[in-house]
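Structure ticket #2291
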Amino acid sequence: MKPVTKRNIFIAAVFVAATVIISVFLPREKSVALDFVEGKPWKNEQLTSPFSFAVYKSEQALQKERAEVLSAQRPYYILEDNREAEAVDSFNVACRRELYVLVGPQLRQKVNNKMQEVYANGIIGSSDLARLRADSITTIMLVKNNVASPKPVDDLYSELQAYEEIMAIDTTLWGRHALQSCNLNEYIRPNLRYDARKSEAARDEALANISLTSQVIQKDQKIIGTGDMVDEEHYQILLSYQQELNKRIDERGVQMTVIGQVLLVILLIVAYFMYLFNYRRNYLYERNKLLFLMSQLTIFPVISAWLLNGGGALMVIPFAIAPVMINVFLDSRTAYITHTIIILITSLIVPEPYVFVLLQFVVGIAAIYSLRELTERSQIFRVALVVMLCYSMVYFGYELIAKSSFALLSKRMYIDFLLNAILLLFAYPLMLLFEKLFRFTSDVTLMELSNFNVKLLRQLSENAPGTFQHSMQVSNLAAAAANKVGASSLLVRTGALYHDIGKLENPVFFTENQGKTNPHACLPYEHSAKIIINHVKDGLRLAEKHNLPQAVKDFIAQHHGKSKAKYFYISYKNEHPGEEVEESMFTYPGPAPHTMETAILMMADAVEAASRSLPEYTEESIGTLVDRVVDGQVAEGHFKECPITFRDINDIKNVFKEKLRTIYHTRISYPELKK
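Resolution: structure written out below.
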């Protein structure tokens, strides 16, 4: 049993807090019961639906549909190709050893061809064939090379039929006794295997596709009139109407309403936590990100409940702010899932949940994909325009379906949509607030930090010009590689510009800033290594002083990982052969890269620095250098803790080679004018 950690306690506390906050603010109502009996007249006044609701099918109708679906299901069988190869190989081996006298090459080839034909068609076991016929199944789904296609059962071979089919080949030239002596039944085995998982999945999918509803009663539509007979159709409509009322007004009082609401909220939040655990576990374990996500998850249902209790217009609330901010700070997939959970929780309290979910679902997707990354303030205006248009178009389409004439169309809703778009413009200042509150790094911040007029970069260019040029080259290499493998090029470019700012403390001790004098010449190797290694600590100290975001600090801390200052380490070992070296004196503090972006920077930094030592710049020398440096880092295990694949690394190396060839291309010599 795993011990309970502080991290797990924090996650559980956030889960409970979100559930309690949402549940407390959800409205509570009581319910009424309808008096109706199937086969008896409706005794009350004419009943008109005050809202739209779906009419559920009866249990008998659903059972009938399920039976029809199950009877039409086709079981899945996998064609095992290896059985054919095993049978043919075994037969050929026997022909070469025991049967070579009776079975010549031509007969053996004919048998091989026939066996391959029979196995390709499919051989099914006798028990499976008997079961299919007992269940009156005439067609199966044959899975070959991951492609399923229907196959009539009558076209399949049983083991006996397969044997007879092979024995039926023309043996005029050799005599039937030669074929009989082959004992072909030893090489015939079923190669169709029943796939229970796919068969059950297909059945479950077919059952899940059965609609539970038969029709939708629209708002203001007549349900039943006074004296009308409550027949089977009206009974199902009234039963569905009562169920819809019970969702809104629970006759058993506030207690049951609270239980139902809390249960649904818990289930939805559990589903959200399951998504985070399975696909975004780092968000779950990083406190600032988890708190940010849960704040979005709770704020909008609470505001909706408060506004509805006060009689306000729900559609004025800019729900699109949540997915936009999550998309900017985290990723689009999490933005989409979070937005879905928000609108599902809020749909528990709105008067027309179907229309609400339809509108918010479409608008949320449009908002997410109209703002992939925020680099300009004008982009928020574009998102607001897209949101207003989507709201208007979706609702207009819905009204064309629900209303009988244009005179009944709601003009008030379109005003609400306009107000919604105006309120969405507040997303920009809210992003700045959340960025500071939860210590995020937006694209806008990265753009500002990558400006060369920033004080720290200006100091680097003035006091350590060689390091500044190196950082610029590294940023170009890393950004190109990031674009190739789908990483954040803006983040890695900005991180590259700041990764060596620690060299500002002792710029002359680094080769790129030195002139003819090398201060390391009169220092012990361990002392020189300490100065070189300390540029990481010095960089983190400067980053803290200048309030750089954590995302940029990670590049400073991780760009050397836990590698060694190899020049001084190897030199020390060469001067002290046989002596045990204290490796910590020559090792960077790390940690190793944790993200794809920091891994790319580590590769780009090492490659760019090493490229300056090449005696000549040819395609071969550059390619060899890049392969040697990056493969060495992989072999030393520097990328074990980050989500990068060998394919990504190979693509990154190719980008580096291409860029370095461009940077160091040969220039022509200009001729001098002859006198």
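Closing remark: Residues 254-279 form the longest helix (26 residues).
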